[in-house]
Amino acid sequence: MDAVADLPLPAFIVIPAVPFLMGTAELALGELARRYGGTRESYREEVPRHEVLLPSFAIAQTPVTNALYAAFVASAGAQAPLAWRGATPPPDRLDHPVVDISWNEARSFCEWLAQQPVTFHGLAGNPLAVRGGPRLPTEAEWEHAARGSDGRTFPWGEAFDPRCANTRDGGPGATTPVGAYPAGASPHGVLDMAGNVWEWTASLDAPYPYRPDDGREDPAAPGRRIMRSGCYANPHGYARCACRFRLPPTARNEFTGFRLAVSLAPEGSKV
Q: Residue 12 and residue 121: Cα distance in Å, rounded?
């Protein structure tokens, strides 16, 4: 297959511009410590819970797969992930999320994909009118796509269910194919937003309340970047929609992957 022909792009889901609840309420910190360990202060980075309103955007229904990343490696001469143990992914893991990806590499992938002759489509196959190229979602976009507007704890609701996510609480102890847990869909229909792999976001590690204009979305700013979702090796407390983790942008390991987002053009614009 030509490296850039027939790219296995995921479908994209449009997230509407409606207010949503981001973060965790101060009064919930004690219960989180009792349920998941640590102290109240262990979860303070999620406080305060606050209402956020973002412009409408679209986010990939599933994370970037080994198959899609392989096209980038072949076309751009990028470094293959160490998890592949070679220049190409294992044939039985083409539909698994790519891992061993740093934040810098995820952004390089987005820049490469922006140069390819591709069209991004919604779930029904309809082409989306996008503004700019593909990118990493911001931390706020990720959380809105994961939990909807009602501030739920997990994408599917309040109570954890091991049938809804690939975590240490019943998963196989390794990555699973993207979309393998359809019961774990978010209110918007986004999949794999709890467990499987940690996902890089565009955002710097900065305290709440979230403000997109305070420098945290500057791609050139130094500092650690926020990750979301938890992974297959974590207990489910890390798979909560509000859970925040961070790593330096050069870090990579067997748990780190990413998904794509796109900004939408004004209504009425053509593809």
A: 6
